[in-house]
Amino acid sequence: MGEKGRGFLVILCLCLPLFVHSQCNRKPVVFNFGDSNSDTGGYSIGLGLNFGPPNGRTFFHQPSGRLCDGRLIIDFLCENLHAGYLTPYLESLGPNFTNGANFAISGSSTLPRYKPFSLSVQVLQLLQFRARSLELISKGYKDLVTDEEFNNALYTIDIGQNDLAGSFTYLSYTQVIEKIPSMITEIKNAIWTIYKHGGQNFWVHNTGPLGCLPQKLATTTKNASDFDQYGCLQPLNNAAKEFNEQLRTLCEELRSEMKNVTIVYADIYSIKYDLIAHATNYGFENPLMACCGYGGLPYNYNPNTTCGQTGFNVCNEEAKYISWDGVHYTEAANSIFASKILSTYYSTPQTSFNYFCRTS
User: Fold this and answer.
1) Residue of 360, 209, 226, 315 whose CA lies nearest to 271
2) What is the rounded distance in angstroms from the CA atom of residue 50 to the CA atom of residue 258?
3) Phi-psi sector, 52: left (phi>0), alpha (psi -120 to 50), beta
4) Is the separation of the CB atoms in 118 and 111 below 8 Å?
5) 168 with 220: CB under 8 angstroms?
6) Which of 5, 20, 315, 332 is the most buried (most CB within 10 A)?
7) pLDDT digits over 115-132, tens only?
8) Would you say 158 and 34 are in contact if contact means Cβ atoms under 8 Å apart?
């Protein structure tokens, strides 16, 4: 795509949240599974550990349980459906589960199985949540998700980044690649389990460009040949691409094996990498530098003084930064990511996000 065409796409994507509206003809219900990229407070509640200031300062104006200055991709997607933000499954005070629940927990991965809060555990929590909800409904309780709504709900999955990031801390590149099929198997098992319990609609995000995270750039031993033209680490990004290719293949296989299901594969890697590669076109500065951290240029990331810890610094204009804390993205970046997801250009098949609540 030429610069003129790319510029048009930038304008289009920036405007999308303003004119892409939900056309649901039934109540949208979403159940989300994943890690800190979509955790709306589960980790904070589950472990009793608050993500203190400056997290949440942009939109919520106080810490919100999110590792971000404001809203996450999942928040923008819920806004598109005119639905409330997803309540963490572990929320015990004043929860609102009428439009679904969020099982994502920061730090989660697909492996090892049955370790809190791995993907397999999150799915077990869903099954317990469903059984308990239906039991309470039978006793006359209101404002809970019904059996039909569980079946018609959208099940979103965004996980894998921590598997890859963690593996690179103790395995060689070749060993990481060899481990990827076992990660994909866990995602396969999760989808099959939900499907066997009535789930029909799945929205699967692939993983982003790991080698572009300021954290990885600042802490990984590297050679000059490891960098791509935009300053990202190619070995880490290549591992992410391999993970994504296997995940894409899995989605294709499941579409052919399952009956009456919709499985959308969203190419988050391309969305995030494009923003980093063409940051200035979107109005961002220093695309590989964290807004909140320590150390200044080039990455403003120090593992001993991370965002919120004593001695950290934080930028004045987070809207000009892509990375919030070296690992997670700013609300400004998340807004663009969500816009591109809603455009359907990065989805296979090209399906509108609200398709699951438009069908009868």
Assistant:
1) 209
2) 41
3) beta
4) yes
5) yes
6) 332
7) 999 999 999 999 999 999
8) yes
In sequence order, which residues have a C-beta less than 8 Å from that of residue 262 and are 6 or more positions away?
Answer: 200, 201, 202, 351, 355, 356
Q: Take residue 54 and report the two structure tokens written for it.
A: 């400056």
Contact 246, 184 (CB under 8 A): yes
The beta-strand segments (E) located in the chain are 30-34, 100-102, 154-158, 201-205, 262-266, 292-293, 313-314, 347-348
* The pair of three-digit structure tokens given for residue 317, joined into one six-digit string: 């204009």
Question: Which residues are bridge partners to 293 per DSSP?
Answer: 313
Active site residues: 36, 325, 328
Asked if residues 336 and 330 have their Cβ atoms less than 8 Å apart, the reply is no
pTM for the structure as a whole: 0.94
Residue 11 binned pLDDT confidence (cut-offs 50, 70, 90) = very low
pLDDT in tens, 204-227: 999 999 999 999 999 999 999 999
Rounded CA-CA distance 264/245 in Å is 14
C-alpha–C-alpha distance, residues 106 and 152, integer Å: 27
Q: Is the peptide bond before 298 cis (omega within 30 degrees of 0)?
A: yes
For 157, list phi and psi in degrees, rounded to 5: -130, 125
pLDDT band at 17 (very low <50, low <70, confident <90, very high): very low
DSSP characters over 109-167:
-S-STTSTT-HHHHHHHHHHHHHHHHHHHHTT--SS--HHHHHHSEEEEE--HHHHHHH
Residue that the structure tokens 């500065």 belong to = 285
Residue type, 110: T
Cβ(236)–Cβ(216) below 8 Å? yes
DSSP 323: B
Strand partners, 101: 31
C-beta separation of 294 from 311 below 8 A: yes
Q: Which residues pair with 348 in a beta bridge?
A: 265
Q: What is the mean pLDDT of residues 52-67?
A: 97
Supply the mean pLDDT for the chain: 94
List the one residue out of 329, 262, 354 whose CA is nearest residue 73: 329
Q: What does the block give as tokens for 292?
A: 């909140």
What is the distance in angstroms between the CA of the first residue and the CA of the last residue of the chain? 38
